[in-house]
Design goal:
It contains 10 helices and 17 strands. The protein is an alpha/beta fold. A hairpin with a 5-residue loop joins strand 13 and strand 14. The longest helix has 16 residues. It is globular and about 65 Å long. The termini are far apart. The model has no long low-confidence stretch (mean pLDDT 95). The structure holds flavin-adenine dinucleotide. The site of flavin-adenine dinucleotide has 31 residues, from helix 1, strand 3, strand 16 and helix 5. Flavin-adenine dinucleotide binds next to helix 1, strand 3, strand 16 and helix 5.
Amino acid sequence: MKNIYDIIFIGGGLSTLMFLSQYTKNNSKQKILVLEKNKKIRSDQTFCVWAGPNLFDIEKTYKLKPKKIWQSIKLINSKESILQKIKPYQYKAFDGNKTLQLLLAQCKNITYKKNIIVDDIVYENLFLVRTKSGELFKSTYLFDSRPPKNKAIYKYPEVLNQAFIGTEISVARDQFDDTAATLMNFQKSDDAIIFNYILPFSKKRALIETTFFTKKVDFNLISKVHKNFLHHYQDYKIIRKEKAILPMGVIKNDTNSQAIKIGISAGMIRPATGYSMQRIANWLGKLDLKRITQSNKATYYFQGPILLDWLDSIFLKVCYNKPEIGPLLFISLFKNANIFSIIRFLSDSSTTLDIIKIILALPKKIMVKGLFNYYE
Ligand SMILES: Cc1cc2nc3c(=O)[nH]c(=O)nc-3n(C[C@H](O)[C@H](O)[C@H](O)COP(=O)(O)OP(=O)(O)OC[C@H]3O[C@@H](n4cnc5c(N)ncnc54)[C@H](O)[C@@H]3O)c2cc1C
């Protein structure tokens, strides 16, 4: 029957395609429809993940090809520069467009419709999905990956925005040290945590991203700071741009809704970092991806790791109330904690000992104030 499906996915971005690339391995006979708002697969993203011992192997499972792999990382503030060698771990970058294309190619027997904006969903024994252009699709199950719209989905009130502008540039002469990725090169600010993120793909090519962890997003200001930072590089050519706002808050997934949330709205994004690829992969790696039925549907609702989300919430409270000390927090963490513990912590794969090491590495007074929400 036309326009009637077993499952409809709203949004054909990272979470949907990672999910379907695995789910359709065993369930390719189901009739599955993806409705995606964009006209083309996005090329304004770069997905980075940590890789190494005891971390879920994303590259192998999803048959992805890294654009670049680093075995050292840097953090810089006005006072110091910290260089950490991370071997046997690695920091890997995947090109956003290629990743989404490769994932889509692995989804067996799905219908992927682009340029369709979902406007309204009604549940009456079946899901009725209405699009902006007036088409109607029906399905038994619905996965919704649209980004969060209201504050009610957050567990704690301290929600920041991670807003950034990135430019991939190339230069004629060698200007980048491509042996290390710079995670955070901080700039001084009292109102937001501001840093530049530098991914040198070669000595002549890099993605430079200016990021603000902020309550209120002002893209004019971010653009100004970004342009100033780009002036560090001589005679550069712009290859590509990235611009986004990601939510930084602990999201409680609504497991009572008929529609199954997936992706950012389900809490698949790490609250304190805005990274989601590893969290999505960890979740899918543990799921028994059997054909969805009413009796196993509950297993498809994502539950975030409670302890890690709680630790992130304290961290976010501090960053929300005292952004000026944000750089100190990150620098203390990377200077004092074991780098392998940090990597496993950031990848949702920490042991109890890792968590203890992380807590001990952070400035106690500041974190206790965050815990009890006490600021002078
Ligand atoms: C520029 C950028 C860089 C990032 N870098 C990293 C990184 O290095 N590492 C990492 O782990 N994470 C990173 N992230 C974060 C995270 O991995 C992404 O946000 C990820 O895409 C989240 O997956 P998702 O499926 O929830 O959302 P998306 O991938 O955004 O997919 C949601 C889809 O829904 C579509 N949609 C929205 N509304 C509708 C509608 N009404 N009808 C139909 N379709 C709709 C959107 O067009 C979109 O394609 C980055 C994000 C961005 C934007």
